[in-house]
Design goal:
The chain is 34% helix and 25% strand. With 334 residues, the chain is α/β, with parallel strands linked by helices. The protein folds into two domains: 28-112, no CATH class; 142-333, 3-Layer(aba) Sandwich (Rossmann fold), CATH 3.40.50.150. It has an eleven-stranded mixed β-sheet, sandwiched between helices. Strand 2 (55-59) and strand 3 (65-69) form a beta hairpin. Helix 2 (79-96) packs antiparallel against helix 3 (102-112), helix 5 packs across helix 6 and helix 6 (187-193) crosses helix 7 (206-217). The model is unreliable at 1-10 and 12-24 (pLDDT under 50). The structure holds S-adenosylmethionine and zinc ion. The site of S-adenosylmethionine has 21 residues, from helix 6.
Length: 334
């Protein structure tokens, strides 16, 4: 509710801001729909305009309710269980970005009460400090020739960076509406925002979603919205995205084929999927590239380009580096 003030102009500005925030939510619901299995219904506010921060949205078709917390809709098939399991993690993630409100707590408690005795869980956040901030990644300590050779290797492995290499695979064609799944702290999201018409970052972790939205909202670029989704129950509406991006996520899923077929359904005609993974064999030792490519093509997508051995460097500290060699593919909906 916008309160009247002594200065009527301020009310008009506040009202415009509220309407702008509501409109931002509205386009998200053109892209993401009801996550209940087989539903694909359109979501709308349970009462009034879409909640800009905290509230409830309802499926027009199956009438299921989904919470909106800190401006992020929670679009998972059993939201009451998700909220009950992650209650403490949700509260601390909202507090971390100063979005913990009385209304958010009411929404959390109303959903959690429907799933009593749920075991508490933590978000499986996965980022190193330099991915979560604008800070430079730590260079190897000055510890002699081997450390210096490692430094040279790391510099050349990251020039260009993995986000730059991945985006160059998409060429110059417009990316349109982009859905990025599993953005982590938003390292790639920041780059995607400059190429997208509008961008949704969607992670199973609310904390990651909030981070990724904040990371790519620094500076100018396309409109950005966040959502909590489970990639294995993808609420992507039919034909709603021109580009889907999933960097280093598919190997974490139990059912990669189910994920890929819902991506294929959610892509517009000639829409594209950009996918990378450090484990294209899903844990099987031989012919790993063929395993990933086979699963992608069986989902109804056609691989248009592929690159292998792209270095993905995760710098934990001056003495601790992880280096993966990832396979990346672009696949198009025929
Ligand atoms: C290894 S991180 C990758 C982060 C980022 N894309 C990158 O390449 O730096 C994997 C991300 O996927 C998310 N994730 C894991 N399982 C998921 C699922 N079922 N649905 C959506 N996101 C998931 C994790 O929360 C995490 O943020
Ligand atoms: Zn529904």
């Amino acid at each position: 509710m916008v309160k009247p003030s002594q200065n009527g102009n301020i009310d008009v500005i506040t009202w415009l801001f509220v309407m702008y925030a509501a409109a931002m939510e509205a386009w998200l619901f053109d892209v993401l729909g009801c996550p209940a299995p087989g539903c694909d219904g359109k979501l709308r506010s349970a009462n009034g305009p879409p909640p800009a921060r905290d509230g409830v949205v309802k499926c027009r078709k199956c009438k299921a309710d989904y919470p909106v917390l800190g401006g992020v809709p929670i679009l998972v098939p059993a939201p009451e269980e998700w909220v009950a399991a992650y209650r403490e993690a949700i509260v601390s993630s909202l507090a971390e970005v100063r979005r913990l409100t009385r209304q958010a707590l009411e929404v959390i408690d109303s959903f959690a009460a429907r799933a009593p005795r749920t075991e508490p869980l933590r978000f499986g956040d996965d980022w190193v400090p330099s991915e979560a901030s604008d800070s430079e990644a730590p260079r190897p300590a000055d510890l002699g020739p081997a450390a210096s050779a490692l430094d040279d290797f790391l510099v050349s492995a990251q020039t260009p960076s993995l986000p730059e290499r991945l985006l160059s695979m998409l060429g110059r064609r417009s990316l349109g509406t982009v859905l990025e799944l599993g953005p982590g702290a938003g390292t790639l999201s920041r780059h995607l925002r400059h190429r997208a018409k509008r961008l949704i970052v969607a992670d199973l972790s609310l904390r990651a979603t909030l981070r990724a939205v904040a990371a790519c909202k620094k500076g100018r670029g396309a409109p950005v919205a966040g959502a909590v989704v489970d990639a294995e129950a993808l609420p992507l509406r039919r034909g709603a995205a021109r580009t889907v991006v999933a960097a280093n996520v598919i190997d974490l899923l139990d059912h990669p084929a189910a994920f890929l077929s819902s991506v294929a359904d959610g892509l517009a005609n000639r829409g594209r999927l950009l996918l990378s993974t450090p484990a294209p064999g899903f844990g099987l030792p031989e012919g790993d590239a063929e395993i990933l490519d086979g699963v992608v093509e069986r989902s109804g997508l056609q691989i248009t380009s592929a690159e292998d051995g792209l270095p993905w460097v995760r710098a934990h500290g001056h003495r601790h580096y992880e280096v993966y060699l990832v396979r990346a593919i672009v696949a198009e909906r025929a």
